[in-house]
Amino acid sequence: MLVTMVDAPADEELLARLEQAADAAADALKAQFGSEEPAVGAYLGSLREGSTSVTHLFESLLPGYRGWRWSVVVAGCEGQDEITISEFALLPGPDALTAPEWVPWERRVRAGDLGVGDLLPTPQDDSRLVPAHASSGDEDLDELMSPIDTGRSRTLSILGRAQAAQRWHDGLFGPSAPMAVVAPKRCSHCGFYVPLQGSLSVSFGVCANEYSADGRVVDANYGCGAHSDVVVEPEAAIPPKPHLAEGVAELVEGVEIE
Predict the structure, then answer these.
(1) Alpha-carbon separation of residue 110 from 106, 107, 165, 229 (angstroms)
(2) CA-CA 20 to 30 A from 211: which of 2, 46, 136, 167?
């Protein structure tokens, strides 16, 4: 047997009576606060919620809730004069100040947030990592590490390595950095450049120049003014010209010396 649910036709007389119950809704709302500081402001209008209920809206005067609205639902039945206050709530209006959309903790953490003593758990399904016994996708690295027990349960995955490479390439020590744009030469030909191992060695290394990006991973196409091939041509020393004092000579009488 198929049962079809249909909405009951609206009782215009009942709804009109409910829409005129704004004063009753306001009185019921104010009664909740007793003699405390007024919390109910101006009447803002009504909304029909169905065939037997209407919501009345009032401005909120509660401190800290500017733009919020009191919502009072009144209901009734066809053929009865009694009106029921069903519920009321404080809801945000279009101009209300509300909290931002909730974001899970693991998505709120940003680079640089980790402090001394902080713990940042890594999810078991972290796509940046793979089990240590699995292939990392880097043949040179796998060949190097195969006979060695590193003691690590997980290592960098192909995706994790690609993401790191992209960050380094786009970061402060990438080829597009302001320092690199005006640099005379690239890091790949610098004596202070120490290439990484594995597949990353083609594009990245560590700077060993204490006056530049010392200890940082730099792109091979990064550059700075402290390149090892930057030299200053010595200029030939030019001897100073003899100084001739020009002035007025004063003649004095000689003095006999005994």
Answers:
(1) 9, 8, 18, 38
(2) 167
At residue 180, what are phi and psi to the nearest 5 degrees? -70, -35
Place of tokens 């100040």: 97
Q: Cα separations (Å) of 248 from 73, 80, 119, 129, 244? A: 111, 128, 85, 89, 13
Do the beta carbons of residue 40 and residue 58 sit within 8 Å? Answer: yes
Give residue 68's pLDDT: 93
CB atoms within 10 A of CB 154: 16
Q: What is the pLDDT of residue 1?
A: 47
pLDDT in tens, 40-54: 889 999 999 888 899
Name the DSSP letter for residue 12. Answer: H
Q: Which domains does the chain have, with CATH numbers?
A: 12-92 (3.10.450), 127-144+153-226 (no CATH)
93-145: per-residue pLDDT in tens? 998 988 888 988 878 888 888 899 988 888 888 999 988 777 666 666 666 66
**At residue 65, what are phi and psi to the nearest 5 degrees?**
-125, 40
